[in-house]
Input
Amino acid sequence: MHPPTLIEKIWDAHVVHEQAGAPTLLYIDLHLVHEVTSPQAFQDLRERGIKVRRPDLTVATTDHSVPTTDPSLPIVDAIAATQVAQLETNCRDFGIRCYGRSSERQGIVHVIGPELGLTQPGMTVVCGDSHTATHGAFGALAFGIGTSEVGHVLATQCLLQRKSKTFEVRVDGTLRPGVTAKDIILALIARIGVGGGTGCILEYRGSAIRALTMEQRMTVCNMSIEGGARAGMVAPDDVTFAYLCGRPYAPKGADWDAAVARWRQLPSGEGATYDRSITIDADRLEPMITYGTNPGMGIPVTAPLPEPSQVADPLQRDSIRKALHYMGLEGGRPLLGHKVNVVFIGSCTNSRISDLRSAASLLKGRKVNPDVRVMVVPGSQQVKRQAEAEGLPEIFRAAGCDWREPGCSMCIAMNGDQLQPGEYSVSTSNRNFEGRQGPGGRTFLASPLTAAAAALTGVVTDVRTLL
Amino acid sequence: MNGAMNFRSRLVPLPINNVDTDQIIPARFLKTISKQGLDKQLFYDWRYDAQGQPKPDFILNQRRGRGAQILLAGDNFGCGSSREHAPWALGQFGFRAVISTSFADIFQQNSLKNALLPIVVPADAHAALFALVDRDPDAEVTVDLASQTVTLPDGRAVEFPIDPFSKHCLVEGVDELGYILKNEAAIAAFETRRVGSINTLA
Output
C-alpha cells in the first residue's frame, strides 16, 4: 500500500456516502456563488420549495457582468443589471451573504475567497466557474461545476462525484529573471495540450513550486482547467499558513493552532504514487506567450510560430492553420515585434496585488505606447485599496494606463470591456478562444510583465530586454 | 426525461478539435437568468456575421445542419468554461447526442444532466463516421442507449462507454437532486463529524 496523496486524503475525508454502481456523495466545505451561473439554480430551488441547506458555507459576489466603472452609477446594460439584481434578491431570499457592488469585499470570486481566508487547506471548494481550480493553491480540492450542480450544493451541500486520476506536475529548479508563475503554467499547457489533463487532478510539486508565493501558486492552479484538469493543487506549507494567518475567516487563537496541526498532515506521503507524472525544468523556462485560439497554443516569446505544413497529424494541422488564420498570423514567422492594440492586466489569473506590483515595476517612470489602450483591473476592492495605499494607480495613470474598478472585465468581455473586431491584445487572463475578449478580437496570453512590456513598446516584446 | 433513448438521425459533422464552450455559446449571452431561448445563440459567432446575417458556409446554416439530432465533433469537445448554457443551447437546437473521441470533464457532466448524450468512440470509428457523412450527407445512424451502441448504415455497431449511474438516470428519468436528497441521514451524520468549519454568516 502506497501512502495516500494530498488529493486522496481530502477526498477520503469528505465521503458522505458510497454505494455500489453510483458516484460518491462528497461533502462541500465552501460554495462560492456569482451572478452568471446561479440564477437558474435558485429558480429550481424555488420551484421545488427547497431551502439552501448551509448558507453559512456559502458566499456570493458579483464579478462577471459588472461594469468596471464607478460602482455608484447604475449598470447601463439592462440585462446585466437584471442578473446582478437577481443575485441580490436570491441571496436575500435564501439567507446568503453577498458581497455585491457596494461592498468593500466585492471582487472576482477567486480573488476574494482566498483574500478573506475563506479558502483553507483540506477543504472541498466549488463554484459555478471553471477557474475554481485557483483555490487548489491552498491544498484544497477545488473545482468548477455546472448550474445543475450549483443547485445540488445549494440544496444538499453535497455533490455526486467520480474519483479523478492523479497527475503529478513536478517543477524543479529556479525561475530566471523575467520568467514568472504564468510562464510555468503556459509552458505546461503548451506541453500537455488543452485536453492533456482531462479526467485528472493535477498536483504541482517540486522546488520551483515551493519557492512560489501564494499569489503565484494561485496563478498556476487557476489555469489547470486550461489543460483540461478540473483541479490543480499545491500541498500546504508555511507559505500557505503565513498567507492565511489573520485573514477575516481564518481560524483564530487555539482554533488556528489546531487547524495548522491538521493542515500539516495533508501533504502526500513519502513514496505516494500518481497515475501520471511530468517534469518541468524551471531553469530552462522562458517568458511564454500564446499565438493561437486555445491556451495550449503557446510558445516562448522568442520562438517562431509553428508552420502548419510541418505538423503531421491532419486535424492538429487544421487546428493550427485555422488558429493562425483567425489570428491573422503567418506560420514560421516570429511573434516578437507584432503589433498590439490593447493590453489587459487583470482576471482571476493575474489581478492580485503582486501582479499589479509586477506590472507597475516595469511601467514606473515610463510611458505606454500612444497607440496602445491599456486597462488595469484590480481583482477585488481589497486589492484596489492596497494598490492605492502603495501609489500604484498613480504609476499606471502617469504611464498612460486606465485604472478601473474590480471585476472579470475583458477576460470574458461580458460587461462592455472588450476588443474591437480584428484588434490584438496582450492579456494576463486565461483564455484566448475566438471572440473571448469580444467578437473578432485576437488574444495573446502572457504574464503581467510581458503584458507591461507590450504596453510600453506597442508590440510583442521579450520583457527581459527591458529589465 | 428521455426514457429509452433510442433514435435514428443524420449526423452534423464539425471536424474541429477542442471546440470550446465560448464557441458553443459566447459569454455575452450568459447574462440571461433563464435557461430558455438559447438555441438561437448556439455557435453564434460561427453561425452569424457581425450584422447578424447567417454565414452560408457554416454547417448549421446548411440544409444538412437542420433537423439532425447528432453532432459529430472533433477531439476534446466542450473544453473551457463550466457554463451549462452549452448543453442547454445544443439541446434546445435539437441535438440529443454529440459524438467525439473525448469530452472535457465539466461539459460531459453537464450534458448528462440535460439528457444530451456525450458519446465517446474510438479514433477509427470516429474517422469512419466522418468518412460516412463525407460520402453520404444523408446517411443515418442509430443511437441506442440501452445497448450503448451507435449503428452505422452497413450494420456495424460501435459500442460506447457510459457510467452505469448516468445511464440509469437517463433511462429511468432519475432526478439527481432527488437522489441526493434521499441521503439526508448520511449527510446529517457527516455534518456532526465535521471539524474546523468556516461560517460565512459570522
Notes: The mean pLDDT of chain A is 97.
